[in-house]
Amino acid sequence: MRRCRLVLAIVLINLVLLAGFALASAPSPTRNGSSGPYERDPSGGPLVAGQSISPAVVAAPVDGNYLHNGGMEGTFSYRHDPYTGIWAGELEVADGWELWYDNRQQCPPDQPDCNPLSYNRRPEYKPERGTARVRTGQASQKFFTTYGTHTAGLYQVLEVPPGSWVRFSIWVWVWSSNRDNPQYSFVPGAYHVSVGLDPEGGDDWRSERIQWTTPEVAYDQWVPLEIEGYTASGQISAWTRGAPLYPVKHNDSYWDDARLVVLPGTPDPTPTPSPTATPYPTPAATPPGGEPPPCSIWRPVWSASFAADLADWHWDAGLGRVVPLGSQLLLTNRETPADAFALAWLAQPLPAAGDYQLSLRVAFPSATAYGTTVGVGSHPYDGQRTLAGSHDRYGLENILRIHQSTAHFRIDLLGQTYWHGQPRDSTPHHVTLDVRETPYGPIAYTLAVDGVEVGRAVSYWRPQSLYAGNPVVMWHSGYWTEVRLDEVSLLSCINYSHAYLPLALRDYGVVPTFTPIVPTIPPDTATPTNTATLTVMPSLTPSMTATATATPTVTLMPSVTPGANLEQDVTQGVTQGVTQGVTPDVTLVPYDREDRSRAPSEESIPSATPAGDASLP
Question: What is the model's pTM?
Fold first, then answer.
């Protein structure tokens, strides 16, 4: 009996202690009667009755990097699968980051008989330590598949000051190989990497709000990736993406040294809308202060000629053909499939300052799985080619990209698709790109297709190159999407206003005056034809006035209106070539794309080779 009483007393004492602990730790009632913990003001003292706490201000980090653990250091923790919710030991991710991957396992369109289990598999996520694939610090983040592809990456949702332009950057190393030598990617799987920003801070990789950079391919070296974007709310998410095309033995990527910084002194734009399937998406608003005024005068600067000598262009026929027709340039296939297509790029550089409009008309007479492009890039181009799956030339088409294949027909501005066409569309389209300087420093771009404005964007990049064709050498031969380019011209904007004077004069409030002097042509003097007389912008006198010495006279090259019939176009081009002194020996043969036996022979393509030059195709 005593033992029972002792046990009962011990139980009662424990119950009393537990009740006292529960009361001590219970939340205290707030002023409105609900329970909640005591709150303190920012100074650390207790919250006074009736006092409210103002929203927290986003403080800039000491190093300016708003990302958490951008260096991929510290602890790597195991994660749950985002689809099944099951904890997985092969998902080990650096703290501060989340993983994502595409789980839709299916064969690519060009490989309908593949094993779908080899495509879009869930990669393994692991820390990398003690190798050259750690750029700085002690670790980098690795994800990979073996004998499989993946579309996957990392992301982080964070907060920056509202109304900010930001730049997200990260370094990536790719090892994609069918061999086990870790120093070299042998027969790689065309591993594409890119980064993106969601200006609303979403956490869904499928969201159309994410603005991705153009995928790049590079192996066995550290490659920087970066993207700029604007967030009105201050909520933003940064994304990385790795996506090999072929299931080679090793498809590995390593990520390190990520940064997200707020750019100083940038305008406050309205967000750019995501692309839609409509032919003409709603134009994006230009940032306040970056809206260029209407141009007073568009003055022709030059009109590119496609004469027989192609003096305005550099070219490389590859295993295709470069056919100049005076006012047009055709990049075509030969009779047999090829692994390299024709290339042509502008010989003269684009203007390094000032406002101008680049205008061109482009058509793709025949579309195949091997697509071709007309591109404007932020870096000079020298005609260098790259092997399929290797690192593409940086800055070749990152400003404007007009691309068609059997899969799609689209026009991108600064990596964002603003216009969609129907694949296999052979109709010529007139494309203009306005390049306008802004008082804030970035360049304001306006893109129009067939006279309809389709999008605007702002960037610090400035155009430096223009090319047409495809610089990639494929592993397997095939027929390429042919390109027809004409009416390539550049017009300079002249505004008689303070806002858009040359930058050297804008700060001084000087407005030069122009007094044109019209030259007198004697009655018995024939007016020159087929010439372009341009007067360079006159220099300023000490009184800060300028006098033009002559009225610019520009005679553009005659154009050939392309039609759906390639034979008619070639006939018109040959006729024009004869009038210009080129006498090709031409036999026209109908070209039926579906019937290769009727393809034109070597002699059926107009021979525009100048005397003494056997290098033209």
Answer: 0.41
